[in-house]
Amino acid sequence: MTFSTPFPPSLIPTPIFKPATTAASPSSYSPLLPQIRPSSSVLRCSSISDMDATAGQGLYPLHRCKTIHLVRHAQGIHNVEGEKDHSAYLSQELFDAHLTPLGWQQVDNLHKHVQACGLSKKVELVVVSPLLRTMQTAAGVFGGESYKDGIDVTPLMVANVGNSERPAISSLNRPPFLALELCREHLGVHPCDKRRSIHEYRPLFPAIDFSLIESDDDVLWTADVREKNEDVASRGMKFMNWLCTRKEKEIAVVSHSGFLFHALSAFGNDCHPLVKSEICKHFANCELRSMVIVDRGMIGSDSSTTNYPGKIPHGLDLPSDVANDKHPKEKGVPN
């Protein structure tokens, strides 16, 4: 069953974290996950006509909000080859592209940043696109230190994944990692955007949860049809709605440039142009942006952990303005 709501989620940028970086379909998408109240969306700030010297503002209950930390994967071999020659994206040699040595340097820099700013202790869940470059990035940025033999914990990533010459990465004291098809890159045509079979990934990333991916093989990618931009945007909206159903309040998402750009393009249309730009511009490799997503349509079912009902113990507490309306004669107010 497909649900809809007149109040789709909103997305609001929080201060943007930018580590040092280097510059660098089927006609109808059918995700393997159930469709969860898909809808189009705009960012609710205030109308442009209301904006003068005072910035537009929005006010929402805290328990209807989540903080999401959006990350594009670090530099992959396809980024390097595609920069030289766009037709290289059609090369089978770039199948499920892995990170470059420079990409791993970008990962190390972002890992240091999320540690230094305290973000690593706040994230409760890491959602990752099930491709090699995104899972390498997610493990390197949000994973623990190098895995050591004798530690009784499943590694997030084993050693030398994608010929990286990197040591294994520990999952000790790290949040859960969950692979999800909804946040994959444009589907189709480009071999770099085709994933391997899940049974090939499991031994490489033992601590990543692949349980929400129903098909072992990549049944979504086709060799002759590239997913349309509007279909990527629609898939992005379904992904945002799915995030609203999660119980976690701080979620990291490691995905791709095309997916993030088109998924965010529906947001911020009634905000100041600079706010719209903060939300929607293209991501650099290994860039991190933090946003607040607001569930305005009651998609999720979270209850507040900080609200307090009052009247404990019970007592008379009629506000004076309400009392004035309720007893106009006693207050000398004419009927």
Automatic annotation (TrEMBL):
Please give the residue ranges the record annotates as the region Disordered.
304-335
Origin, by domain of life?
Answer: Eukaryota
Biased composition of type Basic and acidic residues is found at 323-335
Similarity annotation? Belongs to the phosphoglycerate mutase family.
Q: What is this protein called?
A: Phosphoglycerate mutase-like protein 1
Q: Organism source for this protein? A: Vitis vinifera
UniProt lineage: Eukaryota, Viridiplantae, Streptophyta, Embryophyta, Tracheophyta
